[in-house]
Write a structure and sequence with these properties.
About 10% of the residues lie in helices and about 35% in strands. By secondary structure, it is mainly beta. β4 and β5 (about 80-85) form a beta hairpin.
Length: about 100
């Protein structure tokens, strides 16, 4: 059975989790919270990838230069996927910082 999927700012959200995308104002996660569909955990994969052909033709994209490709799935408490997103970030214009702490 096919699932209805909506796109909000590059995120793919199942419409059963957020029936009305117009409910998203400042925060996708606040809107999901109101629908009792805010993810409680996520699985995220980060890897280097070459730009897709369409993106490689854009101005200021160095041919065959790697970009950061992130694939993230957000899950509800019962294990259902609520969010899927695959942003790509060019290495020449983005910088990432991660802080890790032990509780």
């Amino acid at each position: 059975m096919a699932q209805d999927i909506g796109r909000i700012d590059g995120n793919q959200i199942f419409t059963r989790m957020l029936p009305d995308p117009h409910e998203v104002h400042d925060s996708l996660y606040e809107a999901l919270e109101k629908c009792n569909s805010r993810p409680i955990r996520a699985l995220q994969r980060l890897r280097a990838a070459l730009p897709r052909a369409r993106q490689a033709r854009l101005p200021h994209v160095t041919p065959r230069s790697a970009e950061l490709h992130i694939e993230r799935r957000g899950f509800l408490e019962d294990g259902r996927v609520v969010e899927f997103t695959t942003p790509r970030y060019r290495g020449n214009i983005h910088d990432f910082v991660a802080e890790l702490q032990a509780d």
